[in-house]
């Protein structure tokens, strides 16, 4: 698997531009050409989108979490871990690196949120995650950066044989936002589900990029992403599934479907399958369009105003992704969170 671009806010030479193929739709160098002022320490009250679900809360404020030494999950995790990244520094930059280790046979539900009450910040988060043999990680993400802020999250996830990863990401974007996931898939009974949905207004930008590298036989991947853009917003989907030599028996499916609900909205989609093995079942699909005019007409004929009809159809379109969230409490939180941003 090609090494991802590692961004260091202290090193402007690490800021990718559109000349870097994987970043051509999300040109960081256009908006950030020098190291931003360092964010000061900050504090926030406990809470966040998933607060009502309980569990342990770990909060990074402006890239800092006192005493944090990583997350280690052993045994069956009955309560979730709520991981919050909160930006409260105006016009400043911060970064953090987080390690998460799900031990063999263990399970972890990680409820992750990116919150931007401040303005004009730059947030750069890196996560290194390992999921041991037979272990299970459920990762549910909601992200909403400030309209004039830059938010980057890059996760590198390594799975062992028989491991399971269920990831669902939901975003409302930012000035420039990228949620990137790189997965080393060993095959050998491991299963990956990568789902995402984006709902973007105004001039917001969200980039959902993923690479799943199947390195051994008999692995499965299922990926579904849906999005809606309004006004002059821009949605980016880049999904790549690689099947290496010897990864026979791989079953990998990818779908991206999006709606443009304005004349100046933009969606850039780049689904890729790179297959070096035989005896595999792989497929990808991509559609970008507008709402079904016949359905809109049908609903209006039955007395539903146009705006309400459009909202109902948009809601139904995105809820397919929400319904795939297995954690019941998180699913309902995400449903309300996403509905409020339509």
UniProtKB/TrEMBL annotation:
Domain of life from the UniProt record: Bacteria
The SUF system FeS cluster assembly SufBD core domain, residue ranges: 85-317
Pfam families xrefs: SUFBD_core
Biological process per Gene Ontology, one example term: iron-sulfur cluster assembly
Residue ranges crossing the lipid bilayer per the database entry: none
NCBIfam families: sufD
Protein name: Fe-S cluster assembly protein SufD
């Amino acid at each position: 698997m090609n090494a991802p671009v590692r961004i260091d806010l202290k090193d402007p030479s690490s800021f990718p531009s559109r000349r870097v193929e994987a970043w051509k739709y999300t040109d960081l160098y256009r908006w950030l050409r020098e190291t931003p002022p360092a964010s000061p320490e900050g504090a926030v009250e406990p809470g966040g989108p998933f607060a009502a679900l309980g569990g342990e809360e770990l909060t990074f404020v402006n890239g800092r979490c006192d005493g944090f030494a990583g997350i280690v999950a052993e045994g069956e995790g009955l309560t979730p871990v709520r991981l919050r990244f909160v930006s409260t520094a105006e016009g400043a930059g911060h970064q953090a690196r987080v390690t998460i280790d799900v031990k063999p046979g263990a399970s972890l539900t990680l409820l992750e949120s990116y919150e931007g009450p401040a303005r004009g910040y730059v947030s750069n988060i890196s996560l290194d995650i390992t999921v041991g043999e037979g272990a299970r990680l459920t990762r549910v993400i909601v992200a909403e950066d400030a309209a004039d802020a830059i938010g980057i999250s890059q996760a590198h996830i390594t799975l062992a044989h028989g491991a399971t990863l269920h990831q669902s990401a939901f975003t409302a974007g930012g000035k420039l936002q990228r949620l990137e996931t790189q997965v080393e898939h060993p095959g050998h009974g491991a299963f990956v589900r990568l789902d995402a949905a984006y709902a973007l207004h105004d001039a917001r930008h969200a980039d959902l990029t993923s690479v799943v590298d199947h390195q051994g036989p008999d692995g499965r991947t299922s990926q579904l992403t849906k999005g809606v853009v309004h006004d002059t917003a821009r949605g980016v989907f880049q999904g790549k599934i690689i099947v290496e030599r010897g990864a026979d028996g791989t079953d990998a499916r990818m779908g991206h479907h999006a709606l443009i609900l304005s004349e100046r909205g933009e969606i850039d989609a780049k689904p890729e399958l790179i297959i070096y093995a035989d005896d595999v079942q792989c497929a990808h699909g991509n559609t970008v369009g507008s709402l079904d005019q016949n359905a809109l007409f049908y609903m209006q004929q039955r007395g539903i105003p146009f705006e309400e009809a459009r909202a109902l159809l948009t809601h139904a379109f995105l809820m397919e992704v929400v319904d795939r969230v297995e954690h019941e409490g998180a699913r309902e939180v995400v449903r309300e969170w996403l509905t409020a941003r339509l």
